[in-house]
Automatic annotation (TrEMBL):
Species name: Lentinus brumalis
Domain of life: Eukaryota
An example Gene Ontology molecular-function term: zinc ion binding
Family named by the database record: Belongs to the zinc-containing alcohol dehydrogenase family.
A Pfam entry, by short name: ADH_zinc_N
GO biological process: sorbitol catabolic process
InterPro entries found in the cross-reference section: ADH-like_C, ADH-like_N, ADH_Zn_CS, ER, GroES-like_sf, NAD(P)-bd_dom_sf, SDH-like
Gene3D superfamilies hit by this protein: Medium-chain alcohol dehydrogenases, catalytic domain (3.90.180.10), NAD(P)-binding Rossmann-like Domain (3.40.50.720)
Name of the protein described by the UniProt record: GroES-like protein
Alphabetical keyword list: Metal-binding, NAD, Oxidoreductase, Zinc
Cofactor: Zn(2+)
């Protein structure tokens, strides 16, 4: 008796730094509680780029072939036993984090801190959980979220980075009624989403700081920020004291430019760069909040006395929990104008390596700025 021939599918598989191969893989049917999804759009993220470029992201090293990608949406093609809320043909956003629903953090609703979290496309756990840069994937149905009718696959892929900001905004107590003033450091995709979310929540002032004037011009032109400031590039400080003094001087000049000498209610730090983290403490108003969203510097020297004596709260923010339905509703509502303009480039799955090279360069062959690269199914 011959075995049943299972169908195959294509996946972009990382074997090591800059070693990405398009492979044929067996397509297994979904297990109990899973659904199979045809992935239609995946946005590339900075963490994906680190894995592609270096074969690692911080301490997490790729130990076996890994499929990257975790900002994605697609169409349900099959459901496993026990799945009741999804049907084939349904459009869904894929939440990449698979929580255990069994630890104290999951019980408290803070599943982003789950001790047993398996995150698709991350090398933190082994065996690694594959991500979304493949034609089809089986995924737990409870972390697949139906799309509103007016939400496109590309918009739904943005629900993942938007969720990062929704979670940070909740921790900062930014609400539609707070009328807060907001400063955003860094206007990459995450920073632009921070600006867009703050504006949609009725922030009375939304401004942005970066070292890249082209990105700042983009943020201003497309209505993400009301005012921007380009930090002057100075020689690297030789001592810690000099670095702290430089940070204070730089942010003082920016606050003067913004006509906000007392600072801002909420500062979203989206760069992870040490000088920006230092500046963010001085940029917050007395009694204000600094949200650490960007990841980069591991050990940072901070002007802590400036935070302590002015009661500036410094909050860490990691991924997200219970955000996807809100993110999808917001993306479908039209309350984030020009949000699709964050997606600057689109490539098919077979050109995934080229998509990563494009993201790494930051500009395409025509000299156009690269912000978010979207990889499609074809």
């Amino acid at each position: 008796m011959s075995p049943i021939a299972l169908p195959t599918q294509h996946a972009a598989v990382l074997h090591g730094a800059k070693d990405l191969r398009l492979e044929d893989r067996t397509l297994w049917p979904p297990h109990q509680g899973q659904a199979q999804v045809a992935v239609m759009a995946t946005g590339l993220c900075g963490s994906d780029l680190h894995y592609y470029a270096h074969g690692r992201n911080g301490d997490f090293v790729v130990q076996a072939p890994l499929v990257l990608g975790h900002e994605a949406a697609g169409i349900v093609t099959a459901v496993g036993p026990g799945v009741k809320h999804l049907v084939p043909g349904q459009r869904v956003a894929i939440e990449a984090g698979i929580m255990c629903n069994n630890c104290s953090y999951c019980a408290k609703g803070r599943y982003n801190l789950c001790k047993n979290m398996r995150f698709c496309s991350s090398a933190k756990t082994f065996p690694h959980a594959d991500g979304t840069l493949q034609e089809r994937m089986n995924h737990p149905a409870h972390v697949l979220h139906p799309l509103p009718d007016s939400c496109t696959f590309e918009q739904a892929a943005l629900a993942e980075p938007l969720s990062v900001l929704l979670h940070a905004a909740r921790r900062a107590e930014l609400t539609p009624t707070s009328r807060s003033t907001v400063l955003v450091f860094g206007v990459g995709a995450i920073g632009l989403l921070a600006c867009a979310l703050a504006k949609s929540y009725g922030a009375s002032r939304v401004v942005a700081i970066d070292i890249n004037q082209t990105r700042l011009d983009f943020a201003l032109k497309n209505g993400f920020a009301q005012q921007v400031y380009c930090l002057p590039l100075k020689d690297r400080a030789k001592t810690t004291d000099e670095a702290l003094r430089q940070a204070k001087e730089n942010i003082s000049a920016a606050l003067t430019e913004f006509d906000m000498p007392d600072g801002f209610d909420i500062v979203f730090e989206c760069t992870g760069a040490e000088p920006c983290i230092q500046m963010s403490i001085h940029a917050a108003i007395t009694g204000g909040k600094v949200m650490l969203v960007g990841m980069g510097s591991r050990n940072v020297t901070l002007p802590l006395s400036a935070a302590q004596t002015r009661e500036v709260d410094i909050h860490g923010s990691f991924r997200y929990a219970h955000t996807y339905p809100t993110a999808l509703a917001l993306l479908a509502s039209g309350k984030l104008p020009n949000i699709e303009k964050i997606i600057t480039h689109r490539l098919p799955l077979k050109d995934t390596a080229r998509a990563f090279e494009l993201l790494a360069r930051g500009r395409d062959d025509a000299g156009n700025m690269v912000i978010k690269v979207m990889v499609g199914s074809q």
